[in-house]
Write a structure and sequence with these properties.
356 residues; Aspartate Aminotransferase, domain 2; 2 domains; 4-stranded antiparallel beta sheet; Aspartate Aminotransferase, domain 1; globular; binds pyridoxal-5'-phosphate
């Protein structure tokens, strides 16, 4: 048994997976109890009256090509959130196992673990370290109960990317002992190389990617788990057979066509220039104390008076993310970079001269 199986819940390995209707697109489907007519308002190519293809091959191949891995290393689901859920179901036994994460970070790791009845162990990133990853602190916090270790790079909400050598040190030390999950939801906004290219050096490293951010498809819900084929094999048995809705599959294929990818690259570059402009301007506001460096499409700011910043931005019609519930972020807010016009209006609401 390899480490990916040895670490998994025994019930999952023993599972007889759901046997879905055979996918034989050349034949007329009289085997899945579907209606033979299209519903009103159906604009899909394939027809919403039909069940969608489980793990649609064309989309899996496009995503594999996009990330530069083989199709046998790809699981596609309803956002990274579903990948996190599937990993939790495979690896976490209620009352016995735990995850390890590095707050302040993305909240779903903790929630998915808690839903599964598992514990959450923390190795916090520290303000005094500029939110840098400390591999020695992560490894000191690890115990054999920890089956999933989440590293988010670039990190939400702090915005910084984690040091590649530090991630490597953790992946190397825990290889075969825990699944190290590197969440790269914001990788497209960073010039750091993706860890995807390094996953085949390790037995138990997985990477999360998403189309929700740089590909502008948050509403479609498409995320990718990239992992060794043995883990993808287990995950395909656990994920619901019809995880992806037909309109989502078609929207993702359209967004991944070559011309659309070129347009995305241009938009990402333009937004990064906007981010740097907004960072410079925010730093000049008397209400803002610190603009943290960002490798993502958002900025974390520490405010002189967060309530005042929330009031001013709300009055201008903007909602910012209040981070004050996180430990170590008592005066922090998170600002997503919008369109140039939106950014200008937000900056105007925070200008020192505004509302004397
Ligand atoms: C936005 C985000 C995701 C994306 O989640 P989806 O379910 O793919 O929309 C994943 N991880 C982090 C850290 C995020 O901020």
């Amino acid at each position: 048994m390899n480490a990916l199986e040895r670490l998994a819940r025994p019930e999952i390995l023993a599972l007889e997976p759901y046997s879905h209707a055979a996918w034989r697109p050349a034949l007329t489907r009289l085997h899945a109890n579907e209606a033979p007519w299209r519903p009103a308002g159906d604009r899909s190519e394939a027809g919403l009256n039909r069940y969608p293809e489980p793990q649609p091959a064309a989309l899996v191949e496009r995503l594999a090509a996009l990330y530069g891995v083989g199709a046998d290393r790809v699981l596609v689901g309803r956002g990274s959130d579903e990948a996190i859920d599937v990993l939790s179901r495979i690896y976490l036994r209620a009352g016995e196992d735990a995850i390890l994460h590095c707050p302040p970070t993305f909240g779903m790791y903790r929630v998915a673990a808690r839903i599964q009845g598992a514990d959450v162990i923390e190795a916090p990133l520290r303000r005094a370290d500029g939110w840098r990853l400390g591999p020695e602190r992560v490894l000191a916090a690890w115990t054999p109960r920890v089956k999933l270790v989440y590293l988010c790079s670039p990190n939400n909400p702090t915005g910084n990317r984690l040091d590649a050598a530090a991630i490597d040190a953790i992946a190397r030390a825990l290889d075969g002992r825990a699944i190290v999950v590197i969440d790269e939801a914001y990788a497209e906004w960073s010039d750091a190389p993706s860890f995807v290219q390094r996953t085949d050096r390790y037995a138990t490293v997985a990477v999360l990617r998403t189309l929700s951010k740089a590909y502008a498809l948050a509403g479609a819900r498409i995320g990718t788990l990239i992992a060794p084929p043995a883990l993808i094999g287990i995950a395909r048995r656990v994920i619901p057979p019809y995880a992806l809705a037909q309109p989502t599959i078609e929207a993702a294929l359209a967004a991944l066509a070559p011309a659309a990818l070129a347009a995305t690259r241009e938009r990402v570059a333009a937004l990064l220039a906007e981010r740097d402009r907004v960072a410079r301007e925010l730093a000049r506001s008397r209400w803002v104390e610190t603009v943290w460096p960002s490798d993502a499409n958002f900025l974390m700011i520490d405010c002189v008076d967060p309530d005042e910043v929330m009031r001013r931005s709300l009055a201008a019609g903007f909602i910012l993310r209040d981070l004050r519930a996180y430990p170590d972020l008592p005066r922090s807010l998170r600002v997503t970079i919008g369109s140039r016009e939106q950014n200008d209006a937000l900056l105007a609401s925070l200008a020192t001269e505004a509302r004397a």
